[in-house]
Design a protein that fits this description.
Length: 294
Amino acid sequence: AARATGQELLFVATSDHGEEFWEHGGFDHGHSLFDELLHVPLAVYRSGAEPAVVMSPVDATALFGTFLDFAGLDRGAADALPTSDASATVHGRPTLYGVRQRSVERDGWKYIVRQQNSGRRHRRVRHDPIHQLFDLRRDPREKADRMKAAPERARELHRLVVDEAVGGFPGAWYAWVGPGDEPVELSFSMTGGEGWHPDITDLPWPGQHGESPKSAMTVDREVTDDAATVRLHVSHRPTLILLEPRRSEGDVTVSLGGEPMTAVPEVTTPAELGALMDRSGGDVVVGRMAGEAR
């Protein structure tokens, strides 16, 4: 019909997700970031365009920018699908249920962090994250964990996961606990407001030899109608901790080892926070991300 009327046509065939059928011990979707759930068909036809096959991974969120380009509209900061192979970085966003996970794929490597998320309903939670690394060129079914064989690659990809995660937490508190051997006790206390019930996510770096940290952090909460305290016992360093408020805040104070500490100025971008982390060495730094909490 479009050809008969002389109109341009854009046709896209894709899917929102795949399905697991026990490839990694589960079924359904929304619970993991293995490729049986992330890799979906994608075919794009545009009238008058030259045929091409792009083998590098692309992000489904780039479809929107592609539609705007086709319509001749400004896509602003939105990405568009590449028209040729390129070195791409593709992120898997947090899962819908079960253990919260994040992933990143780059240069044929896939890295997954399974985070023990401390939601608002949990008074005491021990965080035992699991890191996994796969060489997709040799192991496309993601069966052989390469964490201990390629720890430097794992740490490189972990930083990409952290940068992407930070961008999704406007208005959140962050605590960077730099490298070191001694455990750290952090406390966030709020008075006033409507109660403080932040979701807490920690992103501890994998160990020097690629091992996943055990008992990386313990979270204790005390909540009343007009006050709340969140205590973090951090035993694995370095790590980045994000506290995402879900209700209006009153006055929040932070202490380190029982001594009050001063928050640094707000940071506006993941790159700015990354630079702060790099400068801090083994220090503990606490502050806020710019923006409105969700």
